[in-house]
C-alpha cells in the first residue's frame, strides 16, 4: 500500500511485507521429520526377528511370537513335561540364547521373534536330535536409529526391488534345474566343510595315544553300533563319556578341548553347548560300554579283556608305563564330585585347591573362602540361576537366607513351640524384616509327613493278625479302643503312639543308604534271595517329672513313660553263613532310639502301662510270624524281625514281673 512520507511530501512510499522462510527450513519441520523417521524405523523393526535378525518374509506362513509375555501352550506343555519352571518368553530366551530382553526399548529392539528361533528353543528342551544351525555368535545386536540406519536401508532397497523387478517369469522346468544345481553345490560345500572341520578337531584333541581305537574291539560289530560307542570327534572308543543337551556323546577331554578352541557349540549339530551342560549318559549305556571286550595292544599278549577291567590289565605289562595309557582312572565312568567321599574329593580337587590358595594368598590376603564363594556365585549367574545366586549373595553379605521347611520344623520341635506360637513368630519376623525367612505352618506339615511313620507303602505276607492293612497311618491315640476304666481302675491319662509296623518301616527307610552300602561292601549288590533278618531292641523307661510349671492343662499324672526301639543289626543268609550288612555303632545314642509310644503315667503304675502297651505287644506278636515286603532302591525286599526286650531297667522289670522293689534279694 502507498503511505505518505512523514517529511510532509505527497510522494507515496511502497512498503513490502517481511519475507517468511519456507516451511522445509523451519525447526518445527525438522523435529517433525525426525519423529516421522523414528516412527518409520519402529515400523520397520516389526519386520525382523529380535534374536537372529532375519526377516519374517522368509517364512511362508509368517509365524511370529512376542518377545515379552507368557509362553505359548505347546511350549508350556513341553516345559512342564521336562519339569522346568520357566513360564515366560524373556526367561526362556535368556536361558537358551543368553540374551536379556527384559530391558528392551521398542524404539530400538523388535518385539517379536521368528519360528526358527522358536524351534531352537524347543530342541533345547526336547530329546529329539538337533538339526538347526545356530552358532553362539549369531545373535543380532540392535542400535538406535541414525540417518545411515541399516534396517531402514534394507527395507527401502527391498521395496525398490519389488517396484522395479522385471515382469519376466522363468519356466518351471528351468527353475527346478537351477534349484537342483544350487542344492548340489550347497551339499558339496557342506560335506567339504564337515571333512575339513573333523580333521581340525582331530588335530585339536590329539588323543590317539591316550584313547583306544575301534580296531581293538574283539568282536566285529555292525558299523552303526561301532559309531554309537565311539567319540564323534576323535572316532576312538568313548573314554569317560559325556552327553550334551542335544544328545550327542563325546569323550570328556575331546569335547572340552573343542569347546575351548572352536567355540561354544556342539561339533556334530552346531547347537549351542557349554561345559556346564555336559552330563553323564544313562547307566544302561555305560554298562554296555564297559562290558565290551577289547584286545590288549601289547605285542606278546593275545588276551581279550572288558573295557572296565582294561586299566587293571595294562599295568601287568612291563612297558605299559611307556607305551599304554589308562583309558580312565578306576575303569568306570568318572562319578560326579558330590557322590564321592570326602577323601576322594580332596584328591581330585588337589591341584585346583592349590591354585585357588595361591591366588587367595596373592590377591585376597589368604581368604580362600571368599574366593570360592565368588567363583560359585559367578557360575550360578552364568547359568541364569539367579534365585540361588541371590541366596548365596545374601549369605556372603551376612543377611542370611530363607530356611528350609525341615529346618523350621526342627526349630519348632527343639524350642518346644506350639503351632500357634510358631505362627505368631513367623508373622512377626515376616512383618519386621519384609522377608519370609521362616516357612508357614502348612509347609512344616508337609515336611513332617515325610519324616513320620505312615509315609512309605509296605505289605505283610501273610497279613498281620488283627492289624489293619492300611499303611497310610501316622500318630494315633494310645487310648483308642480302651474303655474309661480297666478292671475298675480309671485310665485318666494322655498317650500317643505309632503303629509298630509303620514305625519299623520308617526306621528301615531312614537306614536305606546304610543297608545298601553294607551290601556293596560285602559284594552283594545283586542279592535278591532270602529275607533280611532284623534284630530289634525294645526299651521302656520313665522320663521323670514332666509336670507343667505354668498353664492349666488337664489333670494328668506328672510323670511320663516312653516305649521305644532300636535296630541293632541286619544280616543276610548267604550260602551257609549269615552276612552282616549293618550293625549299630552307638546302640545307646538317642539318635538311633526310635520313639514308639509316649504316655503320661508313672512307670510303677503296672495296670495303666499294661492297658496302653497291650496293642503294641499284640502287633509285635503278629509280626514275629510274618514277613515284611518293602521296596528299596526300586527292588522289593523281604524282612524278618527278631525282638529283644533288653532295654528295660531293673525297676521296670521288677514291676512287670511282680517282684519286690529294688534293694531286695533278686
UniProtKB/TrEMBL annotation:
GO terms for cellular component: DNA recombinase complex; endodeoxyribonuclease complex; nucleoplasm. Binds 1 divalent metal cation per subunit. Mg(2+) or Mn(2+). One of its GO terms (biological process) is chromatin organization. Coiled coil: none annotated. Pfam families: RAG1 (PF12940), RAG1_DNA-bd (PF26024), RAG1_imp_bd (PF12560), RAG1_pre-RNase_H (PF26025), RAG1_RNase_H (PF26100), zf-C3HC4 (PF00097), zf-RAG1 (PF10426). Keywords: Chromatin regulator, DNA recombination, DNA-binding, Endonuclease, Hydrolase, Isopeptide bond, Metal-binding, Multifunctional enzyme, Nuclease, Nucleus, Transferase, Ubl conjugation, Ubl conjugation pathway, Zinc, Zinc-finger. Residues 292-321 form the RAG1-type domain. GO terms for molecular function: double-stranded DNA endonuclease activity; histone binding; protein homodimerization activity; sequence-specific DNA binding; ubiquitin protein ligase activity; zinc ion binding. Its cofactor is Mg(2+); Mn(2+). Residues 1-25 are annotated as: Disordered. It catalyses: S-ubiquitinyl-[E2 ubiquitin-conjugating enzyme]-L-cysteine + [acceptor protein]-L-lysine = [E2 ubiquitin-conjugating enzyme]-L-cysteine + N(6)-ubiquitinyl-[acceptor protein]-L-lysine. The keyword Endoplasmic reticulum does not apply. Catalytic component of the RAG complex, a multiprotein complex that mediates the DNA cleavage phase during V(D)J recombination. V(D)J recombination assembles a diverse repertoire of immunoglobulin and T-cell receptor genes in developing B and T-lymphocytes through rearrangement of different V (variable), in some cases D (diversity), and J (joining) gene segments. In the RAG complex, RAG1 mediates the DNA-binding to the conserved recombination signal sequences (RSS) and catalyzes the DNA cleavage activities by introducing a double-strand break between the RSS and the adjacent coding segment. The NBD (nonamer binding) DNA-binding domain mediates the specific binding to the nonamer RSS motif by forming a tightly interwoven homodimer that binds and synapses 2 nonamer elements, with each NBD making contact with both DNA molecules. Each RSS is composed of well-conserved heptamer (consensus 5'-CACAGTG-3') and nonamer (consensus 5'-ACAAAAACC-3') sequences separated by a spacer of either 12 bp or 23 bp. PANTHER family: V(D)J RECOMBINATION-ACTIVATING PROTEIN 1, VDJ RECOMBINATION ACTIVATING PROTEIN 1 RAG1. This is V(D)J recombination-activating protein 1. The gene is RAG1.
Amino acid at each position: 500500500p502507498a503511505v505518505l512520507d512523514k517529511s510532509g511530501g505527497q510522494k507515496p512510499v511502497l512498503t513490502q511485507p517481511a519475507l517468511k522462510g519456507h516451511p522445509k527450513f523451519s525447526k518445527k519441520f525438522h523435529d517433525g521429520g525426525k519423529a516421522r523417521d523414528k516412527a518409520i524405523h519402529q515400523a520397520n523393526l516389526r519386520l525382523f526377528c529380535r534374536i537372529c535378525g532375519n526377516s519374517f518374509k522368509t517364512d511362508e506362513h509368517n509365524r511370529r511370537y512376542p518377545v515379552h509375555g507368557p509362553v505359548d501352550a505347546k511350549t508350556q506343555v513341553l516345559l512342564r513335561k521336562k519339569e522346568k519352571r520357566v513360564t515366560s518368553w524373556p526367561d526362556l530366551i535368556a536361558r537358551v540364547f543368553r540374551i536379556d530382553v527384559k530391558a528392551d526399548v521398542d524404539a530400538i529392539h523388535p518385539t517379536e521373534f521368528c519360528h526358527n528361533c522358536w524351534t531352537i528353543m524347543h530342541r533345547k528342551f526336547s530329546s529329539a536330535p538337533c538339526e538347526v544351525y545356530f552358532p553362539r555368535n549369531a545373535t543380532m545386536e540392535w542400535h538406535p536409529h541414525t540417518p545411515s540406519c541399516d534396517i531402514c536401508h534394507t527395507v527401502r532397497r527391498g521395496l525398490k526391488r519389488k517396484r522395479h523387478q522385471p515382469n519376466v517369469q522363468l519356466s518351471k522346468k528351468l527353475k527346478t534345474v537351477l534349484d537342483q544345481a544350487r542344492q548340489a553345490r550347497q551339499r558339496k560345500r557342506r560335506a567339504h566343510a564337515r571333512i575339513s572341520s573333523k580333521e581340525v578337531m582331530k588335530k585339536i584333541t590329539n588323543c590317539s595315544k591316550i584313547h583306544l581305537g575301534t580296531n581293538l574291539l574283539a568282536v566285529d560289530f555292525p558299523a552303526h553300533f561301532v559309531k554309537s560307542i565311539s567319540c564323534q570327534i576323535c572316532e576312538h572308543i568313548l573314554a569317560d563319556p559325556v552327553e550334551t543337551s542335544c544328545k550327542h556323546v563325546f569323550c570328556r577331554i575331546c569335547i572340552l578341548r573343542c569347546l575351548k578352541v572352536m567355540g561354544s557349540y556342539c561339533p556334530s549339530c552346531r547347537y549351542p553347548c557349554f561345559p556346564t551342560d555336559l552330563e553323564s549318559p544313562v547307566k544302561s549305556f555305560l554298562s554296555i560300554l564297559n562290558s565290551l571286550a577289547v584286545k590288549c595292544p601289547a605285542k606278546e599278549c593275545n588276551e581279550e579283556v572288558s573295557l572296565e577291567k582294561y586299566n587293571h590289565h595294562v599295568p601287568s605289562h612291563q612297558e605299559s608305563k611307556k607305551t599304554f595309557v589308562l583309558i580312565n582312572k578306576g575303569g568306570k565312568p568318572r562319578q560326579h564330585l558330590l557322590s564321592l567321599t570326602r577323601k576322594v574329593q580332596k584328591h581330585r580337587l588337589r591341584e585346583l585347591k592349590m591354585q585357588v590358595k595361591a591366588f587367595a594368598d596373592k590377591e585376597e590376603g589368604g581368604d580362600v573362602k571368599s574366593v570360592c564363594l565368588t567363583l560359585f556365585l559367578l557360575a550360578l549367574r552364568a547359568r541364569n540361576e539367579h534365585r540361588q545366586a541371590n541366596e548365596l549373595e545374601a549369605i556372603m553379605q551376612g543377611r542370611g537366607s530363607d530356611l528350609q521347611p525341615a529346618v523350621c520344623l526342627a526349630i519348632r520341635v527343639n524350642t518346644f513351640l506350639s503351632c500357634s506360637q510358631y505362627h505368631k513368630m513367623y508373622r512377626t519376623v515376616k512383618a519386621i524384616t519384609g522377608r519370609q525367612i521362616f516357612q508357614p505352618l502348612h509347609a512344616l506339615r508337609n515336611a513332617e509327613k515325610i519324616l513320620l511313620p505312615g509315609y512309605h507303602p509296605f505289605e505283610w505276607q501273610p497279613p498281620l493278625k488283627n492289624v489293619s492293612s492300611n499303611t497310610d497311618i501316622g500318630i494315633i491315640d494310645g487310648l483308642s479302643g480302651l474303655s474309661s476304666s480297666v478292671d475298675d481302675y480309671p485310665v485318666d491319662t494322655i498317650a500317643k503312639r505309632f503303629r509298630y509296623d509303620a514305625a519299623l518301616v520308617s526306621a528301615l527307610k531312614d537306614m536305606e543308604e546304610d543297608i545298601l552300602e553294607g551290601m556293596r561292601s560285602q559284594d552283594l549288590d545283586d542279592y535278591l534271595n532270602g529275607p533280611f533278618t532284623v534284630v530289634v531292641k525294645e526299651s521302656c523307661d520313665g522320663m521323670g517329672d514332666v509336670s507343667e510349671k505354668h498353664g492349666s492343662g488337664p489333670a494328668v499324672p506328672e510323670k511320663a513313660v516312653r516305649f521305644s526301639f532300636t535296630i541293632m543289626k541286619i544280616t543276610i543268609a548267604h550260602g551257609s553263613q549269615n552276612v552282616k550288612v549293618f550293625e549299630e555303632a552307638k546302640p545307646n545314642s538317642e539318635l538311633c532310639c526310635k520313639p514308639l509310644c509316649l504316655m503320661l503315667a508313672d512307670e510303677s503304675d503296672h495296670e495303666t502301662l499294661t492297658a496302653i502297651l497291650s496293642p503294641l505287644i499284640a502287633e509285635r506278636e503278629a509280626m514275629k510270624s510274618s514277613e515284611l515286603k518293602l521296596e528299596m532302591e526300586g527292588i522289593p525286599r523281604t524282612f524278618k524281625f527278631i525282638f529283644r526286650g533288653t532295654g528295660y531297667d531293673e525297676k521296670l522289670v521288677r514291676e512287670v514281673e511282680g517282684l519286690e522293689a529294688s534293694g531286695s534279694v533278686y
